[in-house]
Design brief:
D-Amino Acid Oxidase, Chain A, domain 2, FAD/NAD(P)-binding domain, alpha+beta, 28% helix, 17 strands, 4-stranded antiparallel β-sheet
Length: 415
């Protein structure tokens, strides 16, 4: 069954009458998280909030942005030392290739991509920061006939799944690719293209979400690594080295740290680190108007190259992997051989076992939620316009938890 998500912004339309309206409420208290209560800010102390969101990266910031209207929300961030996935994001808004083994994730991704333009416009109006979203379509390039055949088979397998909508991907030979990408090299034998794909500036997106969250009345708390979470008499207490925070609801959006925090609120969140390495070049004349899955040119003229997935933790770069990435990028675009690399770095992706996403609500600790995914950029509209408002109302939509709860991994192991 498809996820029929309503994406109209919470500030523009009430979602309480939709199919995602919460079916139960918490007891009336000083907190605003009841079905019909207005916010009672004067009843809360400075360390008390309706919602405490743990994790100030792209996932947590988007949820916080969507939940802040009419609620007192705190966003707890570990600070600049955090090994956040956002520091290594390639900034693609990407549809093609998503959803193998889980068509619900493919549909969830598609719906996010369809609302990215309106979401970016709303965020820019509210925060004054343009995330520089562009949707010219996107390429995946192949350097051998075998690579191309495997790519085509992968996409066809995804789209053959029941309930999976088509993405309209095109399979292009070398000549067809050359007509769209004039600077492509002779080593490229072809590729796939989807008009639904695009890219943005992920750092500007993160900054815009934070500024918008604060302008909506949210409280950002840096240097607040959460050491423990307890729940007593309907109230969560989050302990940090800087003091305690109390809230009616807590959202875990702390990336890899969700695995540590989840059991504190009755949730198992099985995520692992998948290291990705990146290169960025000096500014060069514009030559690439389309994002490629492993190469993209930014608005400033630099070129980002990212083409590694390693089952390893840490942020150390590997010269052999960096060299292999650079060599593939030069084969795709020979002009890059004349451009200097100015920086290389590595980051850790937040990867669930099936590579999709986890959204969960605790049955033992009512009011505790979790979100974990490696697609913080692509899925930002869903997190901001669907999850954030739903959590502000007190409950995740049943359709979302049914599809994306971590309990699916228990079922897979039992079968």
């Amino acid at each position: 069954m498809g996820l029929e998500i309503s994406f109209r912004h919470v500030r523009e339309v009430a979602l309480s009458e939709s199919s995602y309206a919460p079916k139960k409420c918490w007891p009336r208290s000083k907190y605003a998280l009841t079905c019909r209560d207005a916010l009672q800010s004067d009843a809360l102390e400075k360390d008390e909030f309706d919602i405490a969101i743990v994790g100030g990266g792209l996932v947590g910031a988007a949820i916080a942005w969507g939940a802040a209207s009419g609620r007192r929300v705190a966003l707890l961030d570990e600070g600049d030392i955090a090994l956040r996935a956002a520091r290594g994001n390639f900034a693609l808004v990407w549809v093609q290739g998503k959803g193998l083994g889980m068509p619900q994730y493919g549909m969830w991704t598609l719906r996010a991509a369809e609302k990215w333009a309106a979401f970016a416009e709303t965020l820019a109006e509210q925060s004054g920061i343009d995330a520089r979203y562009r949707r010219p379509g996107g390429f995946h390039l192949a350097l051998s006939e075998d690579e191309l055949a495997r790519r085509v088979a992968h996409l066809r397998t995804i789209e053959a799944q029941p309930g999976m909508p088509g993405t309209g991907h095109e399979v292009l030979d070398a000549a067809a690719v050359k007509r769209k990408l004039a600077d492509v090299g002779p080593a490229v034998v072809g590729g796939t293209f989807t008009r639904l794909d695009g890219h943005c500036d992920s750092l500007r997106l993160l900054r815009g979400l934070h500024r918008g969250f604060r302008s909506a009345g949210g409280t950002y708390l840096a240097e607040r690594r959460v050491e423990s979470i307890t729940r007593e008499r309907g109230e969560f207490t989050l302990r940090t080295r800087a003091g305690e925070i109390r809230a009616a609801s807590v959202v875990l959006a702390a990336g890899l740290d969700n695995a540590r925090l989840g059991p504190m609120v009755g949730l198992e969140i099985p995520v692992r680190a998948v290291r990705g390495q990146l290169l960025v070049t000096e500014r060069t004349a514009r030559f690439l108007e389309y994002p490629v899955s492993t190469v993209r040119q930014t608005d400033e003229g630099t070129v980002m190259i990212g083409d590694s997935q390693e089952e390893a933790s840490g942020t150390t770069t590997s010269p052999d992997i960096i060299a292999a990435m650079a060599e593939r990028a030069q084969r795709m675009f020979p002009r890059l051989a004349r451009v200097n690399v100015v920086r290389t770095w590595a980051a850790q992706r937040v990867m669930p076992p099936d590579g999709c996403a986890i959204y969960d609500a605790s049955s033992t600790h009512p009011g505790a939620f979790a979100a974990a995914t490696h697609s913080g950029v692509t899925l930002a509209p869903n997190h901001a316009l669907v999850l954030g408002p739903a959590i502000a109302r007190g409950e995740l939509p049943a359709e979302i938890t049914a599809a994306f709860s971590a309990r699916r991994f228990d079922a897979a192991q039992a079968s």
